[in-house]
Amino acid sequence: MQTGITAGFFSQWSGNGIVSYYLNKALDGIGYTDPTTQNIINGVLTIFNAITATGICFFVETFGRRRLFLVSTTGMLLSYMSWTIAAGRYAASGNTNDNAGRAVLGVIFVYYFFYNLAWSGLLIGYTAEILPYSIRAKGLTVVFLSIDLSLFFNSYVNPVALGAIGWHYYIVYTCWLAVELTVVYFFYIETRNTPLEEMAKHFDGEDAIIGGAAATEKGLELARQAGLEDTVRTASVGGGSMAENRYDQKTSAVHLDEVRA
Questions:
Q1: Measured between alpha carbons, how far is 243 from 193 in angstroms, rounded to an integer?
Q2: Which domains does the chain have, with CATH numbers?
Q3: Which residues contact 222 (CB under 8 A, 6 or more apart)?
Q4: How far out from the chain centre does Cα 58 lie?
Q5: What are the φ and ψ backbone dihedral angles of 236, each rounded to 5 degrees?
Q6: Is the Cβ–Cβ distance between 108 and 44 less than 8 Å?
Q7: What is the rounded distance in angstroms from the CA atom of residue 47 to the CA atom of residue 52?
Q8: CA 23 to CA 6: how far, in whole Å?
Q9: For the chain, N or C: smaller number of CB within 10 Å?
């Protein structure tokens, strides 16, 4: 659940909110003030994002989720560092250093390339994948809540900060991206080639309740809540007695290994 919450916030707090919602302010700060030029840049950037975000979806299994998150976040951090430096040089020149302005524009595309490697497509796919079936719906609700809270921040804080301190605001996101990279490195696991039924093993180890055992455990829990535990534990079958209808998780795991073999 913690991974889902951080993914929700990181997807919108990685500096992308500045370009996604206030591209005109960012372009004004580097000398691109003509509305037509800004519209062209916005259109090209949108097409570029669509191509890169869609294209990487075909290589998720090849590269792995964790590797994509690490490369994506590292690339965004380095891009924002370059973005901040170039924007600072443009401002220091009295808004006359066109080379610095063009550098910022180029870095924006580089930044979004790295953002699209993971945070565009894997935000929902990865969080849904790591959540156990029993809490998947609730977990995704929390993920979307995190996204909405971060969007609220982007909508009301980013424009005020950009207007007040200009390019210095990029330093905040540069530092925040360093925090994101640390969290991704230590807490985002690799789930490639892992069936959903066995995903819990990454978090709970070999003692994880997986597959049919998880479903049976959930059924027993619901029966206990409804006061029907005795009915579930013992049922009459052809005049005989059927033992507790419950999987032993270790026996199930051994059986699964034997079937695979």
A1: 35
A2: 2-192 (1.20.1250.20), 203-260 (no CATH)
A3: none
A4: 17
A5: -85, 130
A6: no
A7: 9
A8: 25
A9: C
pLDDT along the chain (261 residues), means of 10: 91 91 90 94 96 94 94 97 95 92 95 95 89 86 94 91 92 96 94 70 57 57 68 45 42 46 50
Ordered alpha helix ranges (H), the chain: 2-10, 16-28, 35-56, 60-63, 65-92, 98-118, 122-130, 136-156, 158-165, 169-187, 201-204, 211-225, 229-233, 249-260
Strand partners, 236: 241
Secondary structure (3-state) at 136:
helix
Q: What is the pTM of this model?
A: 0.76
* Distances in whole angstroms, Cα of residue 218 to Cα of each of 1, 31, 135, 201, 203: 19, 60, 11, 17, 18
In our burial notation (b when 16+ CB lie closer than 10 A, e otherwise), range 119-154 reads bbbbbbebbeebbbeeebeebbebbeebbeebbeeb
